[in-house]
């Protein structure tokens, strides 16, 4: 389904809280269940996709939503990390993946990082999430390191995009 032309990107407001959380609840099981297991999914949803975990980012203007036909179908959240801008979350509802929405959200995060004067956009994905890796490589991200978590959880793979060399 090609929806990009009808998609609105905007800063999330308090009214979007449930829509944002729903994006996490619908994407996490299918994305991470197969590579990290159900316990990891349950942990992540309880830690990062609650109102308490989400409201501060919305209030700080760090959450962007993609809205289509009145529904939140994707989101990003960003924040500073070691002098760079970190893309903490980028998720598109499963039925809308592959229709250009993630690219819109990523390009908006890149534009924001540039506008705010950052030299790099950084992020991590979970080893085994090959769809995410391919997506980020498509936009020129390269690997900077890996973090071993243990406990059966795949490594976190850190990527960065140097903004002065990229005009996307
Ligand atoms: C990863 C994700 C955000 C990508 O969003 P999407 O809406 O599916 O991607 P898009 O349709 O916008 O793709 C944008 C471009 O990236 C390319 N692309 C997407 N996935 C790719 C892949 N695995 N390998 C190579 N290119 C890829 C597309 O071909 C498209 O290229 P084009 O603009 O030149 O035509 C989305 O699939 C998603 O939410 N996945 C599950 C959650 C997840 O893994 N999030 C990242 C956590 S770190």
Automatic annotation (TrEMBL):
Q: Give GO terms: molecular function aspect only.
A: acyltransferase activity, transferring groups other than amino-acyl groups
> Where does the N-acetyltransferase domain start and stop, copy by copy?
7-164
Which keywords describe this protein according to UniProt? Acyltransferase, Transferase
Q: Which InterPro entries match?
A: Acyl_CoA_acyltransferase, Bact_Acetyltransf, GNAT_dom
Q: Which domain of life is it from?
A: Bacteria
Give the matching PANTHER family: AMINOALKYLPHOSPHONATE N-ACETYLTRANSFERASE-RELATED-RELATED (PTHR43877)
What is the protein name given in its UniProt record? GNAT family N-acetyltransferase
